[in-house]
Design a protein that fits this description.
The protein has 341 residues and is α/β, with parallel strands linked by helices. The chain is 25% helix and 22% strand. It contains 8 helices and 15 strands. It has an 8-stranded mixed beta sheet. It has a 7-stranded mixed beta sheet with strand order 7-6-5-4-3-2-15. Helix 7 packs parallel to helix 8. The chain has helices at residues 35-51, 60-65, 99-106, 155-162, 233-236, 257-262, 271-281, 297-321, and strands at residues 2-3, 19-24, 81-85, 90-93, 117-121, 145-150, 178-183, 190-192, 195-201, 209-215, 218-223, 248-252, 285-289, 329-332, 338-340. The two termini are 25 Å apart. The chain has one domain: Ribonuclease Z/Hydroxyacylglutathione hydrolase-like (Metallo-beta-lactamase, Chain A). Bound molecules: zinc ion (2 copies). One zinc ion binds next to loops.
Length: 341
């Protein structure tokens, strides 16, 4: 299955093989910050500015640059949407509310002229992964072709449900763009230009598929949403290749370690589990996302700090064995984060 894309300014210049941009990192529900919280944070920021000895406008940027994510900017409120670009392809994974700003950006290119060829892959159809669909502007522009992909067979049914009254005023038949449905086969690669995407099963209450994305010798594993109840190589079995020889893993960290114990079967993991897998499989870089909508940025920062302690303790364990400690560079995702491979 092959789909060629024309040369387009969207594709990557230079030697970068893959660029990953996180347009939505929140799980479950878009989570804007309440005005009172913004007010409180602004109060603390201003106090911190003067406490640090800064005094004038010229110091503002230096001060903000030095703040951790949870003190300024935060982790983001839009739900799951990830853009992958390679030298000759652009692919989107999931249509959470993060796809809305991505759509606006795409309107500056071929999509705005009605010449866009969009490739949108779905992991599953929980609300937080489809809620942005009716607000993805390229879908309304005549001439655009929107290719949509899923392993699940309900793909067209999902589109018919989303684009119908009383949920949305424009029915599917009246969308400007042409929608083409593609059924993926488990563990069989789909080629888009110079990018290959292979679906592997994740562990979630409804069937959910992760993707192994390869281009130019670089590999990204997209593992969201998952509780990752199968951890060992034996348990993972046919889905183990999702985690092997990977340059960047994007992993579900909705909960803290304690919460995963309380929320068994809720379908999400904690960062500690992703760290374990990354250390075992020698995955060099991990980004954790699907942050809990119930967690304020300060709480997510706390979960990140707990995960740092956990990682340190695991390093000590390996050190005691005398084996070489695998290097894992990881961080919690924030909206707009871009990673080049
Ligand atoms: Zn989700
Ligand atoms: Zn889900």
């Amino acid at each position: 299955m092959m789909s060629e894309q024309p040369e387009n300014t969207l594709f990557l210049p230079g030697k970068t093989a893959l660029r990953v941009k996180l347009w939505g990192t929140r799980g479950s529900l878009p989570s804007p910050r309440a005005p009172e919280l913004i007010r409180q944070e602004t109060r603390e920021l201003l106090a911190g500015f003067f406490d640090a000895g800064y005094a004038g406008k010229a110091d503002v940027e230096t001060y903000l640059e030095g703040l951790p994510c949870h003190r300024f900017g935060g982790y983001g409120g839009n739900t799951a949407c990830i853009e992958m670009r390679s030298q000759r392809a652009q692919v989107i994974i999931d249509a959470g509310s993060g796809i809305r700003p991505l759509g606006y950006e795409m309107m500056n290119g071929a999509c705005g002229r009605g010449e866009g060829e969009v490739h949108l892959f779905f992991t599953h159809f929980h609300w937080d992964h489809i809620v942005g669909l009716p607000f993805f502007v390229p879908i309304f522009i005549p001439g655009n072709r929107i290719h949509v992909y899923s392993v699940q067979s309900e793909l067209e049914e999902v589109f018919r449900t989303v684009f119908q009254k009383p949920y949305f005023p424009v029915p599917l038949e009246q969308l400007g763009a042409t929608i083409e449905y593609h059924k993926l086969e488990p563990r069989l690669p789909q080629v888009i230009g110079d990018m290959t995407l292979t679906p592997y099963a994740l562990d979630h209450p409804d069937p959910c598929w992760g993707y192994r994305i390869e281009s130019g010798g670089k590999v990204v594993a997209h593992c969201v949403d998952t509780e990752c109840t199968r951890v060992s190589r034996e348990q993972l079995g046919v889905d183990l290749p999702l985690y092997q020889n990977v340059d960047l893993m994007i992993f579900d960290a909705q909960y803290t370690l304690m919460e995963t114990i309380e929320k068994v079967n809720w379908g999400h993991a904690a960062a500690s589990l992703g760290i374990d897998i990354a250390m075992r499989e020698q995955i060099r870089r991990v980004v954790f996302m699907h942050h809990d909508p119930a967690s304020a940025d300060a709480k997510i920062a706390e979960a990140e700090a707990q995960a740092r302690l956990y990682h340190k303790s695991q390093i000590k364990v390996v050190n005691r064995t005398g084996l070489q400690v695998p290097q894992v560079d990881w961080s919690f995702a924030h909206e707009g984060m871009t990673i080049d491979l």
